Amino acid sequence: MIAFHAVFGGFLEFLFAEKALSTVSGLFTCMNAVFSPVIWLHLSPPNYMGKQLLFEHTERFLQDYAYFTKCHLHAHRGYELGNTHEHILLSVPNTELSMFYRRYSQFDEGKAWKWQINMKLFDPLLEERCHGYIAKHQLVMPDQSPDMYCGKYLHQCRKGNCKYQPR
C-alpha cells in the first residue's frame, strides 16, 4: 500500500486537486458544494459496443436526465466492454435535492435509453457496495468523458457560467 501511494499518490492528488474533491461519509464536495448520492443506475447497450459509442450514448442519457430534473448531476461511472454495460452512481448538490426528488419519478427512462436500464433510488446502507462494485470495473475518468452534467436551470448556467463545469 505504501508503494502504491508513493507511485500513484501524487498523481491522484494532482488529478483531484483541480476539482477539490474529498469524500466524507457518503457526501463529497466539488467547488465548495456538498453532493449527496441519489440514484444507482445500470445501463446495458448491445454487447460489443465500442467504448466511444458507449460513452456518447451514456453522456446523452445523463444530459437528458439533468435537463429533465433541472439539477446538476455528478456521475461516478464504471464500465465493461464485451458484455457492454455501465454502472453509475449519480449525486446531486444538497441545495438541489428537493427539486430532484420532486421530478425524478416522472422521468420515463425508456424514452431516453432504448436498451436495458435499471434505475433505483440510492440506498445509503449499500453505499460501500456501490463504490466497490464500480471500482471492480474500468473507471471512466473526467478526461475520457464528463463527470458533471448541468440541467441548465439557473440563469448563470444558461449563460455558460455554470460553477460546476470545468473551464
Distance between the termini: 34 Å
Radius of gyration: 16 Å
Number of E strands: 8
Largest sheet: 8 strands, antiparallel
Q: What is the count of DSSP helices, taking H or I runs of 4+ residues?
A: 6
- Give the fraction of residues assigned to helices: 25-40%
Order of helices and strands: HEEEHEEHHEHEEH
Instruction: Report the uncertain regions.
Output: 1-29
* Helix/strand structural class: alpha+beta
Give the percentage of residues in beta strands: 25-35%
Average pLDDT taken over every residue: 78
Shape: globular
How would you characterize the overall build of this protein?
This protein is an alpha+beta fold and 167 residues long. 35% of the residues lie in helices and 28% in strands. It is built from six helices and eight strands, in the order H-E-E-E-H-E-E-H-H-E-H-E-E-H. It has helices at residues 2-17, 51-69, 97-103, 109-112, 127-135, 155-158, and strands at 22-24, 27-30, 33-44, 73-80, 85-93, 116-121, 138-139, 148-149. It is globular. The protein starts with a helix and ends in a 9-residue tail after the last helix. The model is unreliable at 1-29 (pLDDT under 50).
Task: List the keywords.
eight-stranded antiparallel beta sheet; globular; 8 strands; 167 residues; disordered N terminus; single chain; alpha+beta
Topology diagram in text:
Blueprint: H1 2-17, E1 22-24, E2 27-30, E3 33-44, H2 51-69, E4 73-80, E5 85-93, H3 97-103, H4 109-112, E6 116-121, H5 127-135, E7 138-139, E8 148-149, H6 155-158
Antiparallel strand pairs: 1-2, 2-3, 3-5, 3-6, 4-5, 4-7, 4-8
